[in-house]
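Final report, closing paragraph on structural work. Over the funding period we assembled a curated collection of sequence-structure pairs, and we close with a single example.
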Amino acid sequence: MKLASLRVVPMLAALALAAGCSSLNPFAAGKAAPAKLSEFRSTAQLVPVWRAGIGKSGPYVFQPAVAGSAVYAAAADGKLARLEDGKAVWRADADTRLSAGVGADGRLAVVVAANGTVIAYDAADGHERWRSPVGAEVLAPPAVNAELVVVRASDNRLIALNAADGSRRWVYQRSNPPLALRSFSGVVLEGGFALAGFPGGKLAVINLANGGAVTELSVAAPRGSTELERVADVAGTPVVGRREVCAVTYQGRAACFDTSNGNALWARDFSSSVGMDRDARFAVITDDRDAVHALDVYSGASVWKQDAMARRTLSRPLIVDDFVVVGDVEGYVHVLSRDSGAFAARDRAGDGPIAAAPRLLGRGFVVQGRDGEVTAYELR
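Its predicted structure, as stored:
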């Protein structure tokens, strides 16, 4: 399986699952207060480079997109913007409520309305290019390349649209278990393939030319006697290295696979609802107890664990050079040493929770809080 050459889940059930699992629902009754922030000696400088307001997220998770030096951000009220050095190159109004963050490739900036309409804008000047209804709720940012816009519906269908005019190209659908997480997980476009995680612990590789499945990798197998215990959805977006693809599931495992043949390189029992990141040395995971773990990317062996942020509802981690970055429920950005997991720096980006994953931006990164504040940082 060389990547370079290579059903509907009831909404009430998904909401019941989120309500029943306090680790996934920060507003669950009786949830303990977030762990207090501990003092530490800073070993890095976390410098806010710029801040800009875009608008609140409402009930959704809005993740910014980065293409070159440009940051594209959107809000639930339909506003979106292209930001450079904190200044708006352009702003637009979709004139409808949105349900997902921006997908962008430097040519198009794409958002999705709460009614299931995909809306594409010219990335250079912000004028609207096309609208295409997909007939389903979309919670994850679209994946965009020169040919296609691929959106993931909340019923876990993948729908590919022509990037030029929004016409439908193909739909990928697989059978799903009766209960699944309400997922904000996106899709990765790599070469001529799409990679996406699904309920039941499956990671699918899909041919972009026709929407056909190339292969399906088993990250985890559902376990337990009840449907709730058997939820083992792939969490977050899969991460692709030079020769490996890695993913983690809720109530299941983390695993890395060899992209040349699909064989598992390693697998470890893990549970995460937000996902993981990786570089050439480490796979880093935020688990559902809000501990951050670093594993050897080639063997899966534990390297370190940082568990001083319990109940802080941490975001998916991001590796930035020699550091690991996570956001939390109180709007703080935490920087950990990539080699040891020790706290290196901290800053409060805003008052709203940072639920969306931080994104790389040049030599730093950018975060978007639920309060609508977009902040770009450098690490020194």
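The chain has one domain: 11-379. Residues 2-29 have pLDDT under 50 and may be disordered. We thank the funder for supporting this effort.
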